[in-house]
Amino acid sequence: MQRTDRLIRLTQILLERPGHPVSLAHLAEAWGVAKSTLSEDVASIRRTLLEAGKGTVETLVGVQGGVRYHADVPTAEREGFLADLAKRLSGPERVLPGGFVYMSDVLGNPYVLDAVGRMFSTQFWSKRVNVVVTVETKGITLATATARHLDVPIAIVRRDQRVTEGAAISTHYVSGSNRRIQTMSLGKRAMPADARALIVDDFMRAGATARAVVDLLKEFAAEVVGTAVFMATSQPAEKMVDNYFSLLRVHEVSAQGADVQPASFADNS
Amino acid sequence: MQRTDRLIRLTQILLERPGHPVSLAHLAEAWGVAKSTLSEDVASIRRTLLEAGKGTVETLVGVQGGVRYHADVPTAEREGFLADLAKRLSGPERVLPGGFVYMSDVLGNPYVLDAVGRMFSTQFWSKRVNVVVTVETKGITLATATARHLDVPIAIVRRDQRVTEGAAISTHYVSGSNRRIQTMSLGKRAMPADARALIVDDFMRAGATARAVVDLLKEFAAEVVGTAVFMATSQPAEKMVDNYFSLLRVHEVSAQGADVQPASFADNS
Lengths: 269, 269
Hints:
The structure is a homodimer of 269-residue chains. Chain A has 269 residues and is of the alpha/beta class. Helix content of chain A is 33%, strand content 29%. Chain A is built from 7 helices and 13 strands. In chain A, strands 7-6-10-11-12-13 form a 6-stranded mixed beta sheet, with helices on both faces. In chain A, β4 and β5 (100-101) form a beta hairpin. In chain A, α2 (24-31) crosses α3 and α5 (110-123) crosses α6 (140-150). At the A-B interface, α1, α3, α5, α6 and β7 of A face α1, α3, α5, α6 and β7 of B.
């Protein structure tokens, strides 16, 4: 196998499953090359991706010749992406009754989803997340993209109980928007053992829903390492969950449009 | 920029957004190399990916120097993957009341989702799909993965009407499983103009839900080019929708487990 072929194949293998360990020892055997040769190839790939701001290739300690790709978004692309999103979401045509902002098109756009998945996974990479949890329905596309980049499963909290989830644990909470008692339910088989959960959702006001998920996950003895949301309101500034991270902030919504801004890292707690 | 760096970067750019056109003219300018040089690089990448069964790089007619990656799953991996899934889903511990099979763990597994997304996109690649449509909740993860590989948006049909979707069109249908009248609703802004929709869902029995989506999409003047489901029942053999494709067939469900088999291409209509 020629060096150029190896570089293309190695890049493909690493990028196909972000966050997933790849064994160089195994590839060296399959391709009939020395492991040290593959290590040099990985060094080239790491350097090229780092220079492009597209993430890095980590060497795993304790795994014989294990490496994995961790995706990122270059700073300039990130800034342009968030500024563009903020502008798109500010238009008066997006304002819905009750001060909601129409976002379903954005939450269904494959480029947006992949970029958000990269940013959320980068933000919580060090937390050793082993499951992404979301509440149906609008956060599921974001959760899917994030789980792909973290290489972990997704668990979906339901608003009702479904036979298809098997035995489930249900809890009740008071919703932030209409003060009514709501139910949420999660299948008992949905969580891994020793779960370290990242909650992903599309929108957060005070954080009552995320708080309810935290409480539900206590029933699973899961640890919640953080909450990542696409958009949060600037008020109340104090949310009902810790370690929350949002990409966009909405300050005010009126008939003239929404005041949406990229969230600065300082905004995030 | 050295050839090895170009090959790594080009592979990364192509694989990052499957199905999305990449302009070689633009890259040639940005990197200060001849477009013919990049065309040779793309030829190397195409050959290497094809040999590995990982899909191909298409040259786009009518776009100056446009290319795009179309992902696939190597035949041996596909067969092993489906056989393994069929076995995993056949266990008696998965049988739920009503003859349902517990699949939520599989539908939340990032490797499964990516592989299914590749297979669905390959199957319907020639149909020029421009939107993937699913019904909440369990099909959303599959739809997200499929839409990524087709580089098209996702539209989510809701079981209720939500203020966050804006003005919506609702229809009613009789569900296949409990013969009750159900409502489904899709936001008016959710569909592109001249929509060519692929319906994606987790499970199909007779196809009443998919049929209801087809009828709902008529209200949007959308053309449905096919329906892709993860698992279908072998009976009734005649489904209520045309051009349906399933990866797995379930023949019988009893307390001893489910008889799940990879669907042969001949099973699909």
